[in-house]
Amino acid sequence: xxxxxxxxxxxxxxxxxxxxxxxxxxxxxxxxxxxxxxxxxxxxxxxxxxxxxxxxxxxxxxxxxxxxxxxxxxxxxxxxxxxxxxxxxxxxxxxxxxxxxxxxxxxxxxxxxxxxxxxxxxxxxxx
Length: 127
What we know:
The protein is mainly α. The protein contains six helices and two strands; from the N terminus they run H-H-H-E-H-E-H-H. It has two domains: 1-46, no CATH class; 50-127, no CATH class. The protein has a two-stranded parallel sheet. Helix 3 packs parallel to helix 4 (72-88). The protein starts with 14 loop residues before the first helix and ends with a helix.
């Protein structure tokens, strides 16, 4: 296994699962390997967002995910989460909204902030 020490949170955490889902190799894959090993040694349960959602109480929750259009892996992963929640959310009322920003890449929050669009996007959530 490839392992390194920089942390990074993702929708799908298991490197084998990420590969099976067709997600491209990313710089943070070694960090996910480390995270899996540390959590296993510590007796902690390492779950992806779909597993966490399966245990959640029914609630009309909307998860807003913004991804850069030039980062195809991020777009693919967001769409996988959207489909997984849609397939499992018949009674929960939860759904995932994916916003693809064509001009941005992987570091979307920083780019949105620099363009003055992050605050605008967050303000729309507080209605």
